[in-house]
Amino acid sequence: MVKKRVIPCLDVAGGRVVKGVNFVDLREMGEPIELATRYSELGADELVFLDITATLEGRGPILELIERAAAELTIPFTVGGGVTGLDDALSLLRAGADKVAVNRAAFDDPSILTALADEFGSQAVVCAIDARAGEVVTHAGKTPRGRDAVDWAREAVERGAGELLVTSIDADGTREGYDLPLTRAVADAVGVPVIASGGAGNARHLAEAFEVGAEAAIVASIVHERPERLRELKAELKEAGWNVRIPRS
Amino acid sequence: MKVVLADYGAGNLRSVTSAFERAGARPSIALDAESVRDADLAVIAGVGHVESAARGLAANGLDDAVRDRATAGRPVLGICVGMQLLFGASDEGGTGLELLAGPVRRIQAARVPHMGWNTLALTRDSALLGGLGGEDVYFAHSFAVEPDDPGVVAAVADHEGRIVAAVDAGPVAGVQFHPERSAWAGARLLYNVLAWSRSV
């Protein structure tokens, strides 16, 4: 059986990993590849790099980071954040990202998902969906789009997405657990893996996300605070009977 | 020892190149048939579809170069879509090089792609897979090979049914998972591959 995945998400600005998602008071957390390698050693199953300043600075720094990550990491990584369209997404995959996560650009033009899947295969195409109270929102949660998230999830898969990264804006940052009704509704509606995102506070929360059908769960602040927490989370999940990978040390 | 990655325009080969470097090889990326024909080990990696990959290989005569190698008993390793390319017709469209007999079928499971870490179960002795029984490796695919000859299967994984994870047939071998993205186990596989290709 394929194992449930725990995926740290790293925010990147100007090619550096930063802490905090608001654009003020960004603190550097360290050299991105070093940090990524550390998470990899601690049991990360994959990584997500989210380019939070993509639209402000252009793609130079993140492309450079992808090239290094492709060469140096030994686990898969997804790149997303501010993907503006097909060419932008293709440039991230061509630089060596294993997967690209497309959010607003796919919502505005779902044919992008098809075009990406045609060239790289659907396993490389992640559709990122942010939702508040079950409604799709874009622009970092600022713009409600008047469409049911489950309905959009279904279409995104039909169009070519091979995986869905579903973030609850309501739960994000609370550390009180993932949005389980949302995660369950999306997982029930589609036949591709669903990654739950937003709200992780402890191992129990990850287990709940797996219980409602998520194949993977994003962790951010709880592991950035103390990377060793990642190893503990996986050990706790294993102890609780979950089929997770404990890497060789 | 000369290791060549066949470049047929399908995606980025940097991660595979680097993984071979970590295993102790100095791989080069080749666009031309002569390099692919003459190398000590030829690797077909990449992503996408069998159909576009087969077309990409044929465009530079790399398909014949790989066939010539196999006929002459010189080692060929296919990775992911590269393994599917060793086989015949794909449900996804297109036909591979038919070095090994059998179709490439869409995976039947509740969730496809088969995505993530899964455990290798060895089905027979294979120099390629030494030390890898019970190890977790990373898969990301929606289609899988179904060899006519079960004897070529060297390892399987379970995803609501049996997925062929590795084939070992004389000079022709393939892995469905991504050694370049499989941490320790992937490194071990590539180390084994280099030893195997010296001995074939």
Detailed description of the structure:
- The complex is a heterodimer of chains A (249) and B (200).
- Chain A has 249 residues and is of the alpha/beta class.
- In chain A, 39% of the residues lie in helices and 25% in strands.
- In chain A, helix 9 crosses helix 11.
- The mean pLDDT of chain A is 93.
- Chain B is α/β, with parallel strands linked by helices and 200 residues long.
- Chain B contains six helices and twelve strands.
- Chain B has helices at 14-22, 33-38, 50-59, 62-71, 81-84, 183-199; strands at residues 3-6, 28-30, 41-44, 76-79, 104-106, 114-119, 121-122, 136-141, 143-145, 153-158, 162-169, 172-175.
- In chain B, the strands form three sheets. Chain B has an eight-stranded mixed sheet with strand order 2-1-3-4-12-11-10-7. A two-stranded antiparallel sheet of chain B has the order 5-9. A two-stranded antiparallel ribbon of chain B has the order 6-8.
- The longest helix of chain B has 17 residues, at 183-199.
- The interface between A and B is large, with 39 and 40 residues.
Mean pLDDT of chain A: 93
| Poorly predicted runs of 5 or more residues of chain A | none
- Note the run of SSEs of chain B as H and E: EHEHEHHEHEEEEEEEEH
Task: Kindly report the spatial arrangement of strands forming the biggest sheet of chain B.
Answer: 2-1-3-4-12-11-10-7
Proportion of helical residues of chain B: 25-40%
Question: What is the terminal separation of chain B in angstroms?
Answer: 13 Å
Share of residues in helices of chain A: 25-40%
Q: Proportion of β residues of chain A?
A: 15-25%
Mean pLDDT of chain B: 95
> Which pair of chains has the greatest number of interface residues, and how are they split between the two chains?
A-B, 39 and 40 residues
| Rg of chain A (C-alpha, Å) | 16 Å
Query: Secondary-structure element sequence of chain A?
Result: EEEHEHHEHEHHEEEHEHEHEHH
Number of helices of chain B: 6
Dominant shape of chain B: globular
